[in-house]
Amino acid sequence: xxxxxxxxxxxxxxxxxxxxxxxxxxxxxxxxxxxxxxxxxxxxxxxxxxxxxxxxxxxxxxxxxxxxxxxxxxxxxxxxxxxxxxxxxxxxxxxxxxxxxxxxxxxxxxxxxxxxxxxxxxxxxxxxxxxxxxxxxxxxxxxxxxxxxxxxxxxxxxxxxxxxxxxxxxxxxxxxxxxxxxxxxxxxxxxxxxxxxxxxxxxxxxxxxxxxxxxxxxxxxxxxxxxxxxxxxxxxxxxxxxxxxxxxxxxxxxxxxxxxxxxxxxxxxxxxxxxxxxxxxxxxxxxxxxxxxxxxxxxxxxxxxxxxxxxxxxxxxxxxxxxxxxxxxxxxxxxxxxxxxxxxxxxxxxxxxxxxxxxxxxxxxxxxxxxxxxxxxxxxxxxxxxxxxxxxxxxxxxxxxxxxxxxxxxxxxxxxxxxxxxxxxxxxxxxxxxxxxxxxxxxxxxxxxxxxxxxxxxxxxxxxxxxxxxxxxxxxxxxxxxxxxxxxxxxxxxxxxxxxxxxxxxxxxxxxxxxxxxxxxxxxxxxxxxxxxxxxxxxxxxxxxxxxxxxxxxxxxxxxxxxxxxxxxxxxxxxxxxxxxxxxxxxxxxxxxxxxxxxxxxxxxxxxxxxxxxxxxxxxxxxxxxxxxxxxxxxxxxxxxxxxxxxxxxxxxxxxxxxxxxxxxxxxxxxxxxxxxxxxxxxxxxxxxxxxxxxxxxx
Length: 699
What we know:
Elements: H1 4-25, H2 31-54, H3 59-75, H4 77-86, H5 92-116, E1 123-128, E2 134-139, H6 141-167, H7 170-200, E3 202-204, H8 205-228, H9 247-269, H10 273-294, H11 296-310, H12 318-329, H13 334-349, E4 354-358, E5 364-368, H14 377-384, E6 392-394, H15 399-403, H16 413-418, E7 424-430, E8 433-440, H17 451-514, H18 518-545, E9 554-557, H19 558-568, H20 570-575, E10 579-584, E11 589-592, H21 594-611, E12 617-624, E13 629-636, H22 643-648, H23 665-675, E14 679-685, E15 689-697
Parallel strand pairs: 10-12
Antiparallel strand pairs: 1-2, 2-3, 4-5, 4-8, 6-7, 7-8, 9-11, 12-13, 13-15, 14-15
Helix pairs in contact: 1-2, 1-8, 2-3, 2-4, 3-5, 4-5, 4-6, 6-7, 6-9, 7-8, 9-10, 10-11, 12-13, 12-17, 13-17, 17-18, 19-21, 21-23
């Protein structure tokens, strides 16, 4: 006799195992993938154990297998909840590191629950047919409580996954729509199965078979998303601007209320629970269908929901307009504008590749899905011929085909072939002036460009043209402010140079009559040395004022680099009668620009030495810091900074606590540290000293 329910359970277990193995072997290791694999293996163990229960020869064997199933089911949220919590988040490692203690506590509590809960208080009776085939189980009140626990966990899974789906980009929604449908399907089946336990304390083999079918559908949806898309490349940015969805919570609450009402009515009428549930569900389905057919508003909302979530080529892009406006408000440079804009457009419209060209400073270019290259001038001229058609032109054929055998569009055949992927062009126009163009290739899955695509692209092009003009204006204002700052800085330099030159000039005049005086010779040497040191400081300040050059990162031994910097400045410390020491807090290497880091350390160490009185000390240390970061620290016993200086003037140019200081060294150091993706902080206490801490990423 074929035991179909057990076959379905074992099939579900095999699919779950295959899904886990595929992700275990595919791609890079990430926390969300690790928790996904663990969840899949646990669910596979549960389905496999369920298959053994359905094939058990007697009640005792079934009870033993159910004990294993109960342990797996109770513990599975220890892996499932973290997965759904971090899935799709760009900062999954950071979330795991912050929530690790709570995850460990949850796991320990669930393990204790597995050990404490005996199977005998969950299952009241196990039923077999006369032929010795497993038929079902009767659960106790404690078993019903575990059913409520499973429903709550399922609600949390749906809630977290729905938030990830709602917060994802259009490309992310395409990847997640089938897994979401699979999760919704298996959740509905799961609710129905658990409802039977809560209502009549019974669960038979037919309901278990339906549950296994739901798991198979879930596996199929995740496998499809895995094969066709990159499931773990989904990025969901959940912040203050994103309101978490409560649809799952509301629907689940209504479901539990309806379950209680159905149970109460069934008891009052003496009608079997299953039959009453079937009647009510049928009536509800008919009512919902009539409501959709009668109400025009309901039809519009249903059509909008389907188009927005399943037919993305018909999407009206309202959310993307708002997102692009927020993106433009955070852009700081033309290069950042180009890269962010073309990526946003291609991801929002599901375009395979695109190119953005802006006609400023000999042309700025950014690309998506291809290597960026400046379009040839004749191609630009050829595309400009479409300006009269409007802000956006969508080609039915490729531009090279439209150009024919001649050069109807004004660009050479070679260029036309190199850019024959173009399917749409949008112009960045501001009045009668054209600032550039957006070139887009074919859409994913062969979808054609729609009217909504054209309207969205035209709106984006208008906003982008305005953003370019705004950025150019901001850069001119910044250059003006920088020139003003430089003039102010130059006045300091000229003043100090004037004093230094005046002192040397006076010394030269006095030398004519006193050159043979030994004491005068000693004074001359001291004056010259002081002047040289002063001019060296001015030259260093001039260099520090320049914008930091592009850094070139190479894996470097940070401890050795810091020790070398300390040794190079030891003589200066000795001349100030300051003791300088170096401490190693652990070997560490990181990709850094060694010259830039040496420059930072030189500035910080010199400041520490000059701030420390005679007999004081300066201690430098380097090694591993918290959260896998590199830590460099410099501590002195100097006079420190006031609280007002730390809060208002620190890291601001032309503000220094040193006599004659220009306040440039720390500004330069901060910019170089941030260029490495790190941070620099200063802790200080007046008359007690200061500590400068530099943190750098280790990869």
